[in-house]
Amino acid sequence: MSETEESEPAGPGREEIWVEKYRPGTLGEVIGQEEITDRLERYVERDDLPNLLFSGSAGIGKTTCATAIAREVYGEDWRDNFLELNASDDRGIDVVRGRIKEFARASFGGYSYRIIFLDEADSLTSDAQSALRRTMEQFSSNTRFILSCNYSSKIIDPIQSRCAVFRFSPISDAAVGERIREIAHIEGIEITDGGVEALVYAADGDMRRAVNSLQAAAVMGETVDEEVVYTITATARPEEIEAMVTSALEGDFTTARATLDDLLSNKGLSGGDIIDQLHRSVWDLGLSDREAVRTLDRIGETDYRITEGANERIQLEAFLASLTLADEA
């Protein structure tokens, strides 16, 4: 049992942030990335830690694994030997030449190396990445770098070649659901099966979002059910998305547009949220392969236009209209 499980539950509404309260402290406690954590544990056991590159979407354990490595290598001294920087805030070359070099050069005792963790490293400019590569070479004897990014393709090849690359995958629905039930039990929260399923759907493999959503839902009432979850996460029910697309495909544009208007105006979803859910629902609509491919093509085009700054409502209505007119094309 971890330390967080031994603590006294305080009931919904407490000031603690559950994402931090229930963040795994060791690699063995990390959920859903067993193959990666097994390899990382072997590095730590052999005291043979290379530079590491973690890539993958948000909320799937990259930062947690980095801090867990530091805790296991340094014990109680981990904060003194672990520097965490967020590259999305400090994007320039001066940060690489400044804070990183200053930390790497600082004297320390008892350990053969220190760890620098650079989160969102794909936000660094090309010049900053080049400077980072030189810094990694210069301090290779006494510093280990852990880089975290969403897209490894944005990291220059000279850095990738100096790192052991680990590609994190979204956490499985079963693992997210199990963790949600565990936290709800510890906190004394009543949660329905529908509430768990809704949290799993809204999280879409992001454990951080699932835990944050559970904490937000816990203050809404005595019971966390699907209605509460969909409300606080600004997520449409899967059946609403499917009904909207089905209406358009059947030629009933008016009904499809009314559903879209309800999602945008009454439920507060953004165009990007709807696009994401549309993409996730395509293969659940019972479409033929040809219809599914055509729908995905239109989703991609709509997503691009919205991302480029076009009006969300107009683009989504045009998407539904294109589905309605598909048989006439």
What does the oligomeric state look like here?
Answer: single chain
pLDDT averaged residue by residue: 87
For the record, the CATH architecture of the largest domain stands as 3-Layer(aba) Sandwich
Sheet bearing the most strands, described?
5 strands, parallel
Number of separate helices: 16
Cα gyration radius (Å): 23 Å
Structural class: alpha/beta
How is the secondary structure organized here?
Elements: H1 3-6, H2 18-21, H3 34-45, E1 52-55, H4 62-74, E2 82-86, H5 93-105, E3 114-119, H6 126-138, E4 143-149, H7 157-160, E5 164-167, H8 173-187, E6 190-191, H9 193-203, H10 207-218, E7 223-224, H11 226-232, H12 238-249, H13 253-266, H14 271-281, H15 289-307, H16 312-324
Parallel strand pairs: 1-4, 1-5, 2-3, 3-4, 6-7
Helix pairs in contact: 3-4, 5-6, 8-9, 8-10, 9-10, 9-11, 12-13, 12-14, 12-16, 13-16, 14-15, 15-16
Description:
The protein has helices spanning 3-6, 18-21, 34-45, 62-74, 93-105, 126-138, 157-160, 173-187, 193-203, 207-218, 226-232, 238-249, 253-266, 271-281, 289-307, 312-324, and strands at residues 52-55, 82-86, 114-119, 143-149, 164-167, 190-191, 223-224. With 329 residues, the protein is an alpha/beta fold. The chain folds into three domains: 33-167, Rossmann fold (3-Layer(aba) Sandwich), CATH 3.40.50.300; 173-232, Helicase, Ruva Protein, domain 3 (Orthogonal Bundle); 238-328, Up-down Bundle (Zinc Finger, Delta Prime, domain 3). Helix 8 (173-187) packs across helix 9. The longest helix is centred in the C-terminal third of the chain and has 19 residues, at 289-307.
